[in-house]
Amino acid sequence: MATFERHIFICGNQRVPGHPRGCCDPEGKAELQKQIKQKLKERGLHGKVRANQSGCLDQCEHGPNLVIYPEAVWYGGVSLADVDEIIESHVMGGKPVERLRLRDSCINTPACEHKRRPDSPSK
Amino acid sequence: MATFERHIFICGNQRVPGHPRGCCDPEGKAELQKQIKQKLKERGLHGKVRANQSGCLDQCEHGPNLVIYPEAVWYGGVSLADVDEIIESHVMGGKPVERLRLRDSCINTPACEHKRRPDSPSK
Question: ipTM of this model?
Answer without folding.
Answer: 0.91
